[in-house]
Amino acid sequence: MARPLTATIDLNAILQNYRYAKKLQPTCKAFAVVKSNAYGHGAIEVARHLDNEADAFAVAAIEEAMALREAGIVSPVMLLEGVFEEYEWKLCEQHGFWAAIENTQQLNWLLASQVNIEKIFVKLDSGMRRLGADKAGACDLVKKLRESNQVGDVLLMTHFSCADDLSDIATMEQLTYFERARQEIGTIEASVANSAAIMKWAIPEGGWIRPGIMLYGISPFAGLTGQQLGLAPAMILSSKVISVRSLKKGEKVGYGLSYEAAEDHQLATVAVGYGDGYARHTQSGAPLEVNASPAMLAGRVSMDMITIRFADASQSFEIGQEVVLWGGSVPVENVADYASTIGYELVTRMTTRPRYQYHTVSEIKS
Ligand SMILES: Cc1ncc(COP(=O)(O)O)c(C=O)c1O
Question: What is the CATH number of domain 11-218?
Answer without folding.
Answer: 3.20.20.10
